[in-house]
Amino acid sequence: KLTSLALQPVINPELVQGRVHLRCSYSHPSSKPPLQYVVVWSRLSTPGKKEQIQRDTTLQSFSYVEMNGVNLRLGDTVFCTVTAFTRDTPEQRSLPEESKGFYAGIKFLPESLQIAEDGKEHVLTILSTVPIACPGHDDSCKITLQLSTEDLDSQLLGPPNIALSACRVDLLQAPCSESSCAAAVLTVTAVTDFAQDGNRISRIRAEPVGQRDLLWRAYRPKDVKVTVRDLPTGNCYSFTDPHIITFDGWRYGNYKIGTFLLCQSMSRAFEVHIRQWDCGGLRSATACNCGIAAR
């Protein structure tokens, strides 16, 4: 019997006549008589379970399968398994060798984020593991993704939990290298909401838009999970006739009439103005808050 031949099958994406194909390549040991190969293509249908989608018998050291959006779609993890035999003794076969799983579709790096309400920007890379086809002369070779965010804890009302640097990104056609055939970059920032609302989970959704190609039109990439860690926020107060407590706990009274700068950030556009009017009696001069402006 033929033993293990170290065929080492590998899957790579290619454009063939403007259509997305996957190519299974393997080593081609010299043999008399020449070897033939059985290449079985399969996809992961459920975790731990594969279904066969194509079977080829060939003398070549490669095999192709088309991503047609029907039996092989974006979002699938694909494998090719290769077995060798000679024409004289087809019943004697080498041990089958399986490639690593190839994920065909959009990937996010990192796949999930853990960020804090500290204003820092976190880079999120979006890449396509398959080449971008050019469907017509009037279309540029790109995939446009519409991005949106959603807070999973819907019981809490308030502002969005995360902010993106862009609402749309374009994946432009580029030569495939290191499992990326097109890529775009954006930043994700946690919204500082001054609310002690605990750690919250959001997700980022990407949807291809304006696509005539069935392969992309029916595809919905997996969402990115973002965990936002709550950070304690500082508080300051101005109340009644006004008693003021600063962020660091210092207390004093301000009985003047007029408009005052109550609080101002030295690092960003954030300030609070307060207006006080006379609300005292004949015996004592007292001022009270009567208006506020915040930026």
From TrEMBL:
<dbReference type="Pfam" id="PF25776">
    <property type="entry name" value="Ig_VWDE"/>
</dbReference>
<feature type="domain" description="VWFD">
    <location>
        <begin position="234"/>
        <end position="295"/>
    </location>
</feature>
<dbReference type="GO" id="GO:0005576">
    <property type="term" value="C:extracellular region"/>
</dbReference>
<dbReference type="GO" id="GO:0009986">
    <property type="term" value="C:cell surface"/>
</dbReference>
<protein>
    <submittedName>
        <fullName>VWDE protein</fullName>
    </submittedName>
</protein>
<keyword id="KW-1015">Disulfide bond</keyword>
<dbReference type="InterPro" id="IPR057885">
    <property type="entry name" value="Ig_VWDE"/>
</dbReference>
<dbReference type="InterPro" id="IPR001846">
    <property type="entry name" value="VWF_type-D"/>
</dbReference>
<dbReference type="InterPro" id="IPR050969">
    <property type="entry name" value="Dev_Signal_Modulators"/>
</dbReference>
<keyword id="KW-0732">Signal</keyword>
<dbReference type="GO" id="GO:0005102">
    <property type="term" value="F:signaling receptor binding"/>
</dbReference>
